[in-house]
């Protein structure tokens, strides 16, 4: 009899326990979710973060990457699944007024704390980057050895921030990443079947040239770039422009496209905002300046851009009350009271001009008549003189190869949309090396002329022809 009396009670208790269990699961999923709703069933999130520059004047690139790490970490990604490439010479630089910290916003907090030092200094190489993406530990030289050891159900997020040029992403140890090599790596990763889908964000000048006519839809990769194949990207939060960084900073804190997606991610719940919605937000903010802005582009497979951002950058719904009005997939106005990550209407600076701005600020920082001011002025004068020399060199090479009338056109010609900048990438690399042999290493500014080599190849110019002309123009016969 007692059994029959207790059975309904037990059933009721069991029912209550089941409901509580479900509520607890839903509450934890809503409050502490680390990826998309089916995260556990669909695999692991991986991320590769790359700052391809070095030097305090390039503060903004490492700052972007560190901010991205904080977003991923807050979103629930584990350090073991985040591979970070950064030279790591900014936080402890003598020029850093806030030693040991890095900020990405004039009012922002430190984004450097906790960032893994996987590949720094001399280990920040193109070889290590491509090996890490492929999960090839045996090909790694130096660094932590961490790689993207992904499986067929995993999603991968790759973010690069630095200088770029037609067909090339800059790396700090004179081993730049050519678009074709990057594309071949992505193709190999696809053929290995070791990811479900991939999202790539590229902050660089002429970034569209990395994917234009090269990235295939069937690889299930979606990429956005800060610029089209024929324009600069822009720095932001620069000294002397509104809003400026704190007065003690002489360099730009971030890049316009990067800050746009980073601050959007700070404000919005990645479980409700889609990849496509963020693209539209970033596209608008990056181009709002008209001539002082760039055209954000998208490439590859756009079908899965309707997936939530949480599928790639994780998600934490532990947002402050000031963010609640923005958790509508990019539709918020960014005016929430007390929200320190609200997007700020800023005046951007073209990437190459940001480098000169930094040098000018260095001059002004030092007392008149001081040795340091004299040295800073010499550095600025040398940079300006170098730019004039490089521009003149390429004009002279173009005129010598193609004639007075056609020369300038040939080194500047942009191919039609849908075509990669060059057909023969081996020729492209060979001509670049030939130029370096006779005219010296290409600086970050000099690389803006990389399209000239592509156009030479497309027009049938051979190595011997360029070698002869370059030796004449540069006066360095070898």
Describe the protein's architecture and organization.
Belongs to the peptidase C13 family. One of its GO terms (biological process) is vacuolar protein processing. The active site is at 163, 205 (nucleophile). Residues 378-474 form the Legumain prodomain domain. The chain is of the alpha/beta class and 478 residues long. It has two domains: 38-326, Rossmann fold, CATH 3.40.50; 366-474, Topoisomerase I, Chain A, domain 4, CATH 1.10.132. The chain has helices at residues 2-32, 39-42, 59-74, 126-134, 179-192, 256-267, 275-287, 310-313, 351-365, 371-402, 404-412, 425-439, 450-458, 463-474; strands spanning 45-51, 82-85, 155-161, 164-165, 168-169, 177-178, 197-203, 221-225, 234-236, 254-255, 297-300, 349-350. The strands form three sheets. It has a six-stranded mixed sheet, sandwiched between helices. Helix 3 links the parallel strand 1 (45-51) and strand 2. It is globular.
């Amino acid at each position: 009899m007692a059994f029959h009396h207790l059975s309904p009670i037990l059933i009721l208790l069991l029912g209550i326990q089941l409901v509580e269990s479900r509520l607890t699961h839903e509450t934890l999923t809503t409050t502490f979710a680390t990826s998309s709703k089916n995260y556990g069933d669909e695999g692991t999130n991986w991320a590769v973060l790359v700052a391809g520059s070095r030097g305090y004047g390039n503060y903004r690139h490492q700052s972007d990457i560190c901010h991205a790490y904080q977003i991923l970490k807050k979103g629930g990604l584990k350090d073991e699944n985040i591979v970070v490439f950064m030279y790591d010479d900014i936080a402890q630089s003598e020029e850093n007024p806030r030693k040991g910290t890095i900020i990405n916003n004039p009012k922002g907090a430190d984004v450097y704390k906790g960032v893994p030092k996987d590949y720094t200094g001399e280990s920040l190489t193109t070889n290590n980057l491509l090996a890490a993406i492929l999960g090839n530990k045996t090909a790694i030289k130096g660094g932590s050895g961490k790689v993207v050891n992904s499986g067929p159900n995993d999603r991968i997020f790759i973010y690069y921030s630095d200088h770029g040029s037609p067909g090339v992403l800059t790396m700090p140890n004179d081993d730049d990443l050519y678009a074709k090599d990057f594309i071949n790596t992505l193709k190999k990763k696809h053929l290995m079947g070791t990811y479900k889908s991939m999202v790539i964000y590229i902050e660089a000048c002429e970034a569209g040239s990395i994917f234009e006519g090269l990235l295939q839809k069937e690889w299930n990769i979606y990429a956005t770039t800060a610029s089209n194949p024929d324009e600069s990207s822009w720095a932001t939060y620069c000294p002397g422009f509104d809003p400026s960084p704190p007065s003690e900073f002489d360099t730009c804190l971030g890049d316009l496209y990067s800050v746009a997606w980073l601050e959007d991610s700070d404000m919005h719940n990645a479980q409700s905002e889609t990849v496509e919605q963020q693209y539209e937000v970033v596209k608008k903010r990056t181009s709002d300046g008209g001539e002082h802005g760039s055209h954000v582009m998208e490439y590859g497979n756009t079908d899965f851009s309707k997936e939530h951002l949480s599928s790639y950058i994780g998600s934490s719904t532990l947002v402050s009350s000031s963010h609640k009005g923005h958790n509508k997939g990019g539709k918020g106005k960014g005016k929430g009271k007390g929200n320190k990550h609200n997007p700020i209407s800023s005046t951007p600076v073209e990437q190459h001009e940001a480098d000169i701005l930094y040098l000018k600020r260095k001059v002004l920082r030092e007392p008149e008549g001081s040795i340091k001011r004299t040295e800073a002025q010499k550095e600025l004068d040398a940079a300006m003189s170098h730019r004039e020399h490089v521009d003149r060199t390429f004009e002279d090479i173009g005129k010598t190869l193609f004639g007075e009338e056609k020369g300038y056109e040939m080194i500047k010609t942009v191919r039609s949309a849908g075509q990669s900048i060059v057909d023969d990438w081996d020729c492209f690399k060979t001509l670049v090396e030939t130029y370096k042999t006779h005219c010296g290493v290409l600086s970050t500014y000099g690389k803006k002329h990389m399209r000239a080599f592509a156009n030479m190849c497309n027009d049938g110019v051979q190595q011997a022809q360029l070698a002869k002309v370059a030796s004449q123009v540069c006066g360095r016969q070898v």
